[in-house]
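Can't attach files on this board, so I'm pasting raw text. These are the components:
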Amino acid sequence: MKSISTPERITVVGAGLMGQGITQIFASQGHAVCLTDSNQDALGSAKDRVRTNLTRMARGGIDLGADIEEILARISTTPDLATACKACDFVFEAVYEDLELKQRIFSDLDRMCPPTTILCSNTSAISITQIAQQSKNRERIVGTHFWNPPYLIPLVEVIRAEETADWCTHSAYSLLARVGKHPVHVHKDVPGFVGNRLQHALWREAFAIIDEGICDPATVDEVIRNGFGLRLPILGPVENADMVGLDLTLAIHNYILKFINADPTPSTTLQARVETGQLGFKSGQGFLEWAESDMAESRERLANYLINVFAERQRQSKGEAK
Ligand code: NAD
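---
Top answer:
Structure tokens for the assembled complex are below.
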């Protein structure tokens, strides 16, 4: 029998961008993690990528809590799904965003894992209820939507599907809180959950503004980065509306909502650019033009910003704990 204080054994399915990051989170917090992937190359390079991330975080002033090699030693890998899930308390699935693949994996996990194992999907948008459809024990299947990079962005949306049991969502929430994530409960299994609905409502309006020629693409980002975007990390729309007054918010909405985009189809500019091969960083041209050095600078700026925010939050929580 496993003692209560033993860290939960974690299995991660899919060693791509998100799977590696999720593995890193649990290994950093003292959990034994078994990582599996059907692609040997992805599996073979996963630990090196985790090492690179951890080295960068340490350089940026983040306290990792253990030596990098000690963290890496907690990670084992196998290409065999059955071996990976023979003895585990939680499985985090992070394979391609493909409904049939995820349904198959969950049906396999449900057959192969011990009956008490909780099965979590990191899908960005697919209904958890649909993912669970081919599985027998659907009460133990739950959505846990991490954000990229998962080891730096605290939020994880914990999504209850139609048949998920409360004990399952609560166990996933509690584990995520214990490893330093910021879980939130999402009570309805709707496309986009909460975060992606909010994010893509903003993106739809951003692209509609470009379609209508109200300002150029670079100006859209300037308006956000130098305007209300500065408030967003500490003030969401709910608190902000209360702060300015719900009467004022209602008056603004009564006037403005009819002018804001509500199209169910994507922006015409977005569609036209994709049709002509203008894919952004992938092709060097998207809404904006991208030289190699600009892309490197943009990625670096984001990584440094997120590491600084993480380090600052860690310092604050250590100060509060004293
Ligand atoms: P990825 O392409 O980087 O990695 C997917 C991995 O799954 C690959 O290594 C692949 O070999 C593996 N895989 C495929 N079939 C498999 C199988 N049958 N068994 C084992 N492994 C298999 O993808 P990603 O970006 O890490 O995304 C993974 C999931 O996380 C997707 O559902 C995605 O929507 C979601 N997600 C992605 C992001 C993001 O920003 N990339 C953010 C949040 C959620």
